[in-house]
Design brief:
13% strand, elongated, 226 residues, alpha/beta, binds nicotinamide-adenine-dinucleotide, 6 strands, 6-stranded parallel sheet, Rossmann fold
Length: 226
Amino acid sequence: MQNWLQLENKVIIVTGGETGIEKAIADKLSGLSANVISADIHTDSANKQDGIYHIYCDVSSKESVDAMVQKVIARYGKIDVLINNAGVAKPQLFVDASCNDSEYEADTDSFDFIFNINVKGVFLCSQAAAKQFIKQKIKGTIINMSSESGMEGSAGQSIYAASKNAVNSFTRADITTIDRYVKNYNIKGVTCNPTIIIKDGGSIQELVKHVPKDIELYLQVIAQDY
Ligand SMILES: NC(=O)c1ccc[n+]([C@@H]2O[C@H](COP(=O)([O-])OP(=O)(O)OC[C@H]3O[C@@H](n4cnc5c(N)ncnc54)[C@H](O)[C@@H]3O)[C@@H](O)[C@H]2O)c1
């Protein structure tokens, strides 16, 4: 990835940026001289000297999201991009016909857990960032990490698939709404829909090898229109 992307000094919040796909993306963005903030409930690397600003944030809590945004503004004075990545899955049977009260059957706890992070988290973070974009009078970008599962469904993942489809609809609906009622700020929203990425036991470098297209797409979308 070359400097033509012109991400120098962009302030980019990556939720769930401590592991997985977003760790790979946060590292790449940081390497391109962007100011990267990892907002995650796991802040083990808070003291790591890796050029990334690590902030504790539970995306399912409005208080936590607002506090995170305040810290970013206090440090950088602006937000250019939000990447909503924090997401959870819990493979379970929709119905376990083999027994009653099965631990393998989806239940309301699983539903609340998945929807609170995957959908409510996207709503809270997007709203907070969009308000900031409007205040700053800039073209902000919101990238929502969805999943192929949200378009096609996947076995044993009915709640997760529904949550990712909600993310797709949410992206279309909230951006259209902002565009209609808040003219001139041109907030850009896209979803990224990766397929399953095998990463057990793999390093971040190996993970990046599996998702280069998605990462490039991310970076190109971020770079456009600036
Ligand atoms: N890995 C895949 O195969 C795959 C495929 C399609 C889509 N996705 C999506 O990509 C995204 C990243 O996937 P991944 O496999 O890298 O995930 P991961 O589990 O490796 O990382 C998710 C991160 O989110 C953080 N997180 C969890 N709950 C949080 C909360 N309440 N607030 C803030 N942070 C929280 C975790 O601490 C973790 O750092 C997710 O949205 C996932 O649904 C993943």
